[in-house]
């Protein structure tokens, strides 16, 4: 959850600094012994639906992105500094939403990459490496725009216009919108080939707020 600013260039970018801690109304809490068993469970539960998301999450071991000792439980885990790595089912859900945009030659921006886990999965689907950039995630990263896919891992009080502007025609943005820890909704924003914007509310979620670096880490 980027409460602040950090980006990772997933052949484009990812604002890294906290990761998202959101969950849907899902009765998961599956306790797996390893990454393989966890991903198999998500697939058998139909959280993972596509082969590409399955392959990406199978290739990126969640155990390398948290030292909590509970990497393979389907729940959020603390990664320090008031940030978390989201529950695996939420990672899978986000990747499924963006799956058809994360293809070879595409460009993606991950705002608030936190542990870097989702960024790594996105990079696997794009067939490229990521680049970490420090900055204000609310402003995106215009230097590498436009993006075919943008993921935001912290809740914005209102829709960030800068990120919509940085979407490529045919691109998709997914982000949580709403006040801190209440009444938040995961929203999908699509930009049509002729530049029109279409928004769709997906599900209720809980994220840390998208805010400035000074508010996240006051001196």
Automatic annotation (TrEMBL):
Gene Ontology terms, MF aspect: protein-L-isoaspartate (D-aspartate) O-methyltransferase activity
Localization (cell): Cytoplasm
SUPFAM superfamilies: S-adenosyl-L-methionine-dependent methyltransferases
Matching InterPro entries: PCMT, SAM-dependent_MTases_sf
Annotated Pfam families: PCMT (PF01135)
GO biological process: methylation
Tagged with keyword S-adenosyl-L-methionine: yes
Enzymatic class: transferase
Plastid as UniProt keyword: no
Keyword terms: Cytoplasm, Methyltransferase, S-adenosyl-L-methionine, Signal, Transferase
Residues making up the signal peptide according to the UniProt record: 1-27
Enzyme Commission number(s): 2.1.1.77
GO cellular component term of the entry, any: cytoplasm
Record-linked PANTHER family: PROTEIN-L-ISOASPARTATE O-METHYLTRANSFERASE (PTHR11579), PROTEIN-L-ISOASPARTATE(D-ASPARTATE) O-METHYLTRANSFERASE (PTHR11579:SF0)
Family membership noted in the UniProt record: Belongs to the methyltransferase superfamily. L-isoaspartyl/D-aspartyl protein methyltransferase family.
The protein's name: protein-L-isoaspartate(D-aspartate) O-methyltransferase
Organism of origin: Bombus vosnesenskii
């Amino acid at each position: 959850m980027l409460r602040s600013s950090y980006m990772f260039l997933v052949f484009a970018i990812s604002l890294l600094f906290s990761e998202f801690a959101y969950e849907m109304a899902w009765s998961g809490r599956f306790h797996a012994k390893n990454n393989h068993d966890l991903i198999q469970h998500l697939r058998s539960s139909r959280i993972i639906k596509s082969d590409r998301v399955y392959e990406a999450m199978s290739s990126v071991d969640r155990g390398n992105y948290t030292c909590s000792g509970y990497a393979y439980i389907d729940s959020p885990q603390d990664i320090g500094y008031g940030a978390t790595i989201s529950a695996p089912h939420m990672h899978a859900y986000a990747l499924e939403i963006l799956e058809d945009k994360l293809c070879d030659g595409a460009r993606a921006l991950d705002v608030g990459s936190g542990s870097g886990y989702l960024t790594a999965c996105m990079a696997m689907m794009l067939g490229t490496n990521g680049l970490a950039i420090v900055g204000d995630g609310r402003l995106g990263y215009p230097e590498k725009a436009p993006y075919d896919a943008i993921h935001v891992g912290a809740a914005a009080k209102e829709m960030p216009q800068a990120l919509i502007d940085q979407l490529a025609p045919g691109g998709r943005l997914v982000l949580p919108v709403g006040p801190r820890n209440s009444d938040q909704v995961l929203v999908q924003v699509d930009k049509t080939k002729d530049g029109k914007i279409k928004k769709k509310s997906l599900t209720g979620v809980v994220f840390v707020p998208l805010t400035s670096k000074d508010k996240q880490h006051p001196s």
